[in-house]
Amino acid sequence: MAEVDPVTPEKPESDNVQTQPAADPAAAPAAEETGAEQAEPPEAQTESAPAETEAAAPPVKAPVNLEELARVVEALLFAAEEPLAVREMARAAGVDSTSVRRVLPRIKAAGDEQRRPWDLAEVGAGYRLVTRPEFYPAIQRLKSQTRERKLTQAAVETLALIAYRQPIGRADIESIRGVGCGPVLRQLLDKKLIRISGRGTGLGHPLLYGTSDYFLEHFGIKTIEELPKPGELKPQ
């Protein structure tokens, strides 16, 4: 008998196919989200704008109206009792010192051109308005008339305190009277009825006031001791 080669049986195709495990229903949404995330293209990186790397430019200031500034500076000079420095006027007007220096010659030129009774003068490190010399006689006559006016009740009370308690400071006078006495003291000084007799030893070394020689002449006495004693005064 002829020999027959043994035939190896072939495996079914289903054996060669790798089966995949069944998909987990709970994992499906996660897979979809992951796929969606991967599907999104990466954001394009834009180049930084040159403005971000460069320093910001300083704000542009509005130009100063020199004509209006001259009016403001003139008002400041008129209201000030002491000479004003350029930086003080600039701070009050809200501008820089250079702008104030530019309008000061304009103010002086306008006063000369319009023949105003005042002149802009540089005094020390500041500026102030001063009366022109040709008006000095009229001003002196006015001061003489002012000195001849009768004293107010406040001035009489303040003068009496100074006469009986001299030397005395402004704070003590105001403490006794209960009101400010700055204008009254200036009035009495202008009338030459009181004088500054020294400085106190308190904080700031305040000015002390006393009566003047004109006070004695005005009231017809030789010395301050001739003033009537407080108990001798009778109400009228």
Q: Please, could you describe this protein's structure?
A:
Among the domains are: about 65-135, Orthogonal Bundle (Arc Repressor Mutant, subunit A), CATH 1.10.10.10; about 150-230, Arc Repressor Mutant, subunit A. It is mostly helical and about 240 residues long. The model is unreliable at about 10-20, about 25-35 and about 45-55 (pLDDT under 50). A hairpin with a 2-residue loop joins strand 1 and strand 2. The radius of gyration is 48 Å and the shape is elongated. The strands form two sheets. A three-stranded antiparallel sheet has the order 3-5-4. A two-stranded antiparallel sheet has the order 1-2. The protein has eleven helices and five strands, in the order H-H-H-H-H-H-E-E-H-H-E-H-H-E-E-H. The N and C termini lie far apart (about 175 Å).
